[in-house]
Amino acid sequence: MLKKLIKIVAISMISTTIVFAANFNAQAEKDRKAFVDYFLKKFENPVANRDKYFPYVPLKELKKDYIYPLKFQDFQDGPLSWYRPSKEQFAEINDFPPYEIPVDDGEELFNKPFANGKTYASCFPNPAIKQNYPYYDVHRDEIVTIGMAVNECRVINGEKPLKYGKGDLAKVVAYLAVKSRGKKIDIKIPNENAAKAYEAGKKLFYKQRGYLAISCNECHVKSAGKRIRAEALSPALGATTQMPVYRIKWGGLGTLQRRLAGCVKDTGSEKPKMQSKPLKELAYFLTYMSNGMKLFGPDTRK
Amino acid sequence: MKKLILISTITVAFLAGCAMNNPYASNGVDNAIANAQAKYNKAHSQMVAWKNTKKVLEKAKKLAKSNPKKAIALANEAAYEAQTALDQSAEFEKTWRAEVPK
């Protein structure tokens, strides 16, 4: 009798965990589907759907400069996905990709022994892992980004951590990105705190802020596919697939967080610190929105 | 006498007007800075502080001894920005969910 009871309790406990486990990402999946759907519809046929999505863009420009229809994976190209003049310009620049040398540097750093004789490979035996970052670590109860993983590898091997956002750290991340090309983004929401972190990132994305009282949503969803001065606004779908990027403006590589921090500041807000909780939450949300999309970083940007 | 009343009325009205222009203003350089600091801290901890508020506040602190009048003005400006950021955040808190694609 007792045995039977224990069995029943055990089974019901396991099944409830399974049910809950399946539920933590329910809201996020709903959001993601609607998000993908919005972009697929918007870029299916901008000429035919001009009234709905692009009422102020001249018809001539829509016909001449817009690339469509965009399929799911096409959004990997960010601002180049839909705007033909940029796409052509950058195709030319990428004949000799400016990120190639930094990636080579990254490979060298990856394979160069630390003082203790070990290399990064001791932490990343399989370097094709970028598709799983950022992930929610349930034991540490926090989001772990790929930059953090690189620095933690250094620290456990007795090395000093690198500065986040650019430089050598971005080079190592770029090397990991190249090794992860073609892998599909696979962000999970393993528990309730992870779901909370996702919601916090989502709020940061949609809620207007700064003295401009503007949100990421305003530029990268509603206005995605429009131009702002000399820039073609990128759709937020696929926004993390090509990171890190070599930016001509930076004269070097920058990580996703570097880009995000810059965009937060552009709303007229205080610039958040690299690897701060809100910035990680924003990255977690944004990367989740591109789940299922193949990685193809790094790439070149203005 | 009449003239005096008139002048003082104008002065009072003028001062009241100044204070009303910026409802977060406070007097005395230490008060002004403490007030701005508290408001800024709150906005900062909620991650909604504006880009330059901290800079303005730091400048106010620097000038507290040498130019208290300017320091008060700057501190009040910082306090105003921080409070507006908090108010704005509370306002958008009610509406942002409607922006999420459904």
Q: What does this entry look like structurally?
A:
The complex is a heterodimer of chains A (302) and B (102). With 302 residues, chain A is mainly alpha-helical. In chain A, 47% of the residues lie in helices and 6% in strands. Chain A has one domain (24-302): Orthogonal Bundle (Cytochrome Bc1 Complex, Chain D, domain 2). In chain A, strands 6-5-7 form a three-stranded mixed β-sheet. The longest helix of chain A has 22 residues, at 2-23. With 102 residues, chain B is mainly α. Chain B has one domain (23-94). Chain B has helices spanning 2-21, 29-45, 53-63, 68-93. In chain B, helix 2 (29-45) packs antiparallel against helix 3 (53-63) and helix 2 runs parallel beside helix 4 (68-93). Chain B is elongated. In chain B, 25% of the residues are buried. Mean pLDDT of chain B is 85; it is low at 12-19.
From the alpha carbons, calculate the radius of gyration of chain B and give it in angstroms: 18 Å
Low-confidence segments of chain A: none
CATH topology of chain A: Cytochrome Bc1 Complex, Chain D, domain 2
Q: What order do the helices and strands of chain A follow?
A: HHHHHHEEHHHHEEEEHHE
Mean pLDDT of chain B: 85
Q: For this structure, what is the CATH class of chain A?
A: Mainly Alpha
Contiguous uncertain segments of 5+ residues of chain B: 12-19
Structural class per helix/strand content of chain B? Answer: mainly alpha
Spell out the helices and strands of chain B N to C.
HHHH
The percentage helix of chain B is over 70%
DSSP strand count of chain A: 7
Question: What is shown here, in short?
Answer:
By secondary structure, chain A is mainly alpha-helical. Chain A is 47% helix and 6% strand.
List keywords for this structure.
heterodimer, A: about 300 residues, mainly alpha, Cytochrome Bc1 Complex, Chain D, domain 2, three-stranded mixed β-sheet, 7 strands, B: about 100 residues, 4 helices, about 75% helix
